[in-house]
Design a protein that fits this description.
4 helices, A middle domain of Talin 1, rod-shaped, mainly alpha
Length: 172
């Protein structure tokens, strides 16, 4: 084999090797960027969800504060309940994004939060109805039940945070 042919063959092999390495590096970089993009979207969805939960919980606290008055003002209670309901809708919308962004275990964690929240919301709805009716017999028992349901809700939210950290790779 003469030197010219050997050089040409060597250049061709070198070019093919370089092209192959560039393709592998390009795919690896694309996968890394895609994973980073996915992680950022999930992070944003989880943060929006937790923010919506916080706002709704503050509104729930305002409803409970109005109900704890010696003689709850029905109009004040209704106003606070209306705000709570609006913020609960925001949580629902944020939940849909969590479900879409996934993974399924995050949807399950959000569902556990929703179930705990629904129990608390139902009790508060009954308390508001009792306040409207002037019914005070169950007030002490309802207050105790609220505390228990709030603990369950906060545990479910804490579990959601833990799952989010795991999914996002922030386990340290």
């Amino acid at each position: 084999m003469d030197a010219g042919l050997a050089a040409l063959l060597g250049a061709a092999i070198g070019s093919l090797t370089t092209l192959g390495a560039a393709l592998v590096n390009g795919r690896t970089q694309a996968r890394t960027q895609s994973a980073q993009w996915r992680r950022q979207h999930r992070r944003d969805a989880y943060a929006a969800y937790l923010g919506a939960l916080h706002d709704r919980d503050v509104a729930m606290d305002a409803v409970l504060e109005a109900l704890r008055a010696e003689r709850p003002d029905p109009a004040g209670v209704d106003e606070r309940v209306g705000r709570f309901v609006g913020l609960a809708r925001d949580v629902h919308r944020a939940t849909e994004i969590v479900i879409i962004e996934g993974p399924p275990r995050m949807a399950a964690a959000a569902d556990r939060v929703q179930r705990a929240s629904a129990e608390l919301s139902e009790l508060v709805r009954c308390m508001a109805a009792n306040a409207h009716a002037g019914e005070t017999a169950r007030r002490g028992a309802d207050e105790a039940a609220v505390l228990d349901l709030e603990r369950r809700l906060y545990k479910a939210v804490g579990d959601f945070r833990t799952e989010a950290r795991d999914v996002l790779g922030n386990t340290t």
